[in-house]
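Reminder: ligand-aware prediction takes two inputs, not one.
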Amino acid sequence: MRLKIVVIQIVLLVLHACATVPLTGRQQLSLVANPEIITMATQQYQQVLKEGKLSDNQEQTQMVKRVGTRIKGAVEQYMTGAGLSSQLEGFNWEFNLIQDDKTANAWCMPGGKVAFYTGILPVCKDENGVAVVMGHEVAHAIANHGRERMSQGLIENGLLSSLSAAIGQNPTMTSQIFMQAIGAGAGIGMLKFSREQESEADHIGLIFLAKAGYDPNEAPKFWDRMVAVSKTAAPPEFLSTHPSDQSRITALKGWIPEAMKYYKK
Ligand SMILES: [Zn+2]
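Here is what comes back for the chain with zinc ion:
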């Protein structure tokens, strides 16, 4: 009997707790409010910046900030045009380049907190390559993939409530779910998203980078370079969460005509 009630609660909850991903229209689970996640993510981000060392290469730092700012502009323009600007509530964008040549990695936490590590710049090759990675990572945040993961984690652990209520019920478990959801557990900021979320971020990211004035045709070339470095002795950390293979590249190429409609020179 009790199980039946719980099942009914879950069904009702899931029905009421859905969000729609911008651009793709996919329905996703959303149990947690963005501002709650963003507050926690911001604390994690400050921690990363405190423990890491920012690059003192002004040229590269400015490039990362410039690409980030242009993509942020494209995102805001798109979301405003689509009547979705409320979804950016609580976002406080930041783009930083961390000095770490051995780490070929980049990520964006919920709320628009972006970190690039200097080790990924050779794979990016140039500013357009940085935009490919930036577009993809920002797309994860705009599509609320961390929130989706966190909502799934709460359900799997039987915490069927808002984040603050879940913290009240079981603070340790809730914080673990959060750390896993934004990837702050192992290898800070790195999150292993599902294949579906990865593909969605490729798709959305391509449109944002085109809208920001970067050439979407460069995206498959970046992933080609990722495939090439994956065969080296020390494959980049980015690869452990971003499997780079031919099917990924083929899918990306399929979205280029759509992205070209947004491409402004
Ligand atoms: Zn990704």
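The chain has a mean pLDDT of 87. The longest strand covers residues 94-98. We will return to this case in the review session.
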